[in-house]
Amino acid sequence: MTAAKPRPREELLLRLVSALADQPRASMGQLAGLVGLSRATLCRYFPSREAMMMEIFQEGVNSAEQAIERAHMGEGQAQEAIQRLIQELLPIVELYMYVERQLQLEEEYSTVRTEAVRQTLIHQFQQWQETGALRRDLSAIWLCESLFALLGKATRLIRVGRLARHDAPNNVFTLLWGGIVHP
Description:
Elements: H1 8-22, H2 28-34, H3 39-45, H4 49-71, H5 78-89, H6 93-105, H7 112-130, H8 140-159, H9 168-180
Helix pairs in contact: 1-4, 2-3, 4-5, 4-6, 4-7, 5-9, 7-8, 8-9
């Protein structure tokens, strides 16, 4: 099980998110340098910081929606579906989680689209619980949050070179699955 690589536009946005996480007040020129572009090139992609932030938001939510769709969570056993979900979310989770963090900082916990993403996952975890595939003593919300926490940590470890990209999906799945199936 290996994680897919992000598309080129996603890759640029992921690099920008990483730079913004490290230096949230960085200017467009500073951000350009942090992601390996000239200021002029970055401004060709995004004419303003506001336009850049809007695209980060849109792509973060779009990517999460598409990842969930590609995972075909309603097909097959819970174990295989969760493995597919991890495979699909891992390359884009940092982008999506950045969107959620920004909404929290602005005291808007979610938007209609981010809430729909979260509710889709929670609902699927609840279905798996109802069928007995997952333990019921932990809420589906907690299981969903645990998934995102593990994915987020894995992406940070990949970024700093402490976890190999090809090992990440299995590591996340093994730890998550070990905690969500019946004891």
